[in-house]
Amino acid sequence: MNSTYLDYNATAPLRPEARAALLAALEAPANPSSVHRFGRAARGIADTARGQVAALVGAEARRVVFTSGGTEANNLALRLAVEAAGAKSLVVAAIEHDSVLRPARHLAERAGLPLYEVLAGADGVVSVAAIAATLGAAQSAHPGPALVALMLANNETGAIQPVAEAAQLAHAHQSLLLCDAVQAAGKIPVDLARLDADFLTLSAHKLGGPTGAGALVARDDWAPAPLLRGGGQEKGMRAGTENLPGIAGFGAAAAAAQAGLYAMKTVAGLRDRLQAGLLAACPEAPVYGTGPRLPNTLCIGMPGVPAETQVMALDLAGVAVSAGSACSSGKVTPSHVLLAMGLPEAAAREAVRFSLGWASTAADVDRALEAWTVLWRRKRK
Ligand code: PLP
User: Fold this and answer.
1) Is 327 assigned a catalytic role?
2) What is the pTM of this model?
């Protein structure tokens, strides 16, 4: 059966440009630390990719530290904030991805670092006022700089967060801001200077690059506080021989995503058509993330039908989507994002996420629409 893939926020199909760059980087022995011509060629490939990734977010190339993905980049940012920048407390949006939430909770439990989690509004947006109140409480109880973590766009709802305002607030309080831009990059314009984030994180496979590559973009110079110690790669920030094919694919995907940003209007049109069709079939279906939203994401509930039932029924019909909350074990738990927006647990268990991208077509939307509608009519009976 040919399949309709509408799970780009989990991982996007590899772009042809990324595949070509990745395969080319596999052609010769390639250790960028080697002094000979092969090493120099490898260094050139990494430098090109560094420039492409930096350009996607309007940063200088030297600011990019390559990692194994978004998870490692977020962990590294937290490490830098605490060890290099001396953060005395953590103020983290409760809708953050687990790769921010869990290391933050680990730091709280193991290192006794005070952690404050900030809930979102019903629209999926964490308000600057809520962050300000929490940051104030954090700093009066624990004087000194805090690290504020606010993602640019949420992976489940697509809700876009007020990162530039939060960064301004953090800086006014001598604090730092970590912006997880993993889902936003390649879908909406991302400009480090405008966001003014101290740390920004990216993942290759969310924008059409390979899995296993990502980056931390730091606004300032920091003393290295690596998670992995060993060789001095990535200016001492990340030891280990670079994943050059992954990095080359990441760079090419970043360039292609940037060049293709204009096409996100078409993707938004497809997403809107899908949403309108689903709501025509079931007007009472709740749509989550009603404020500014990524152009590709639709998080919607089917009343009375568990998300895992929907995901399986759609899969049988050849349509791949996610329950927003599916964790790495594949078990579906109520989405922590929807709970942090104040949803009751029962509703949070009924939401699925459709996420489109660079290769999505009108036929994909028609097929998803039909599969979801058939299931809804069957369940309603
Ligand atoms: N941050 C967000 C918002 C994500 O959606 C994800 C992946 O789902 C990550 C971080 C982790 O990225 P990676 O899979 O590259 O580790």
Assistant:
1) yes
2) 0.97
